[in-house]
Amino acid sequence: MGQGHSASAPQVILMGLDSAGKSTLLAKLLTGQVMETSPTIGFNVGTLNLDKKTSLTVWDVGGQKHMRPNWRLYLDDCEALIFVVDSSDQGRMAEAKAALKKILSEEKLRGVPVMVLANKKDLPNSMTIREVSTSLDLPSYTDRLWEIQACSALKGLGLQQAFTSVNKMIKRS
Ligand code: G3D
């Protein structure tokens, strides 16, 4: 794995509300590596080349933060969207649901598969994937592949399976 961004590389985009656990997830994936952040690009916390062909770009969405106008440029080659939610924060599920809906209404993401990561499953009060799935209205997304996976970015649980599933979804879509 290395860092860097090539505008033409297929992208996997990681999104979610602030505090969902995106930086923690990225740090886990980058263990032992130095992470470069690109404040000039926007709110992405980093871009990681998963392999020669695929890179992962991370964005905060929703919350008090405003999307930069140029974030859509990153959707051009987006092959999959990973949407991270804090499954222990029931109070922000409606906000997460709205943010996901808004992103998925982007024309450029039509038909793009979505992996929802129900993060922080290590916490005792975390919602089940069924509860998260219902809260985010995932069954209403009938025009694309979607999956939900529980994980703990902090403990590194469920991440391998999630990325394996993402690759499979990309191949199937
Ligand atoms: P963001 O990048 O999406 O904004 P962060 O989110 O990665 O900064 O995570 C926000 C907070 O949640 C951090 O705690 C982080 O340690 C915690 N967190 C992230 N993933 C997990 C997880 O899987 N389990 C638990 N228990 N906590 C997690 P702080 O205290 O630093 O704000």
Automatic annotation (TrEMBL):
Entries under Pfam families matching the protein: Arf
Task performed by this protein: May play a role in apoptosis. May act as a tumor suppressor.
Originating species: Oreochromis aureus
Keyword Nucleotidyltransferase: no
Keywords noted in UniProt: GTP-binding, Lipoprotein, Magnesium, Metal-binding, Myristate, Nucleotide-binding
Top-level taxon of the source organism: Eukaryota
Recorded GO MF terms: GTP binding; GTPase activity; metal ion binding
UniProt protein name: ADP-ribosylation factor-like protein 11
Residues that coordinate or bind Mg(2+): S23, T40
